[in-house]
Amino acid sequence: MSSPYAAINNSADPKRSAKVHRYKPSTAAVSTDDPTPDYMNLLGMIFSMCGLMMKMKWCAWAAVYCACISFANSRSSEDTKQILSSFMLSISAVVMSYLQNPQPMTPPW
Asked: What residues form the membrane-spanning segments (predicted)?
């Protein structure tokens, strides 16, 4: 019991079903592995340790900057504990360096 409109629609259909190809994304063109958050996280940890141990304020501020970049470039599926610990370590480096020497920061050059 086909309707008369079905025959009209099939004959006037501009699509060519023989030419339709399923989309397959190329895996070589798209790289989802961006190492920037990992590098910034590691750099932030190093800077915060230098800020804590050597009492260098500019290292502590660089650690905060690296932690912010690491957070901004990280994916939502990554481990948030590591990013949070990097933030806390960099903030503690800034706080401890200013508690030990409350004078304004002097440039390293």
From this structure: 42-71
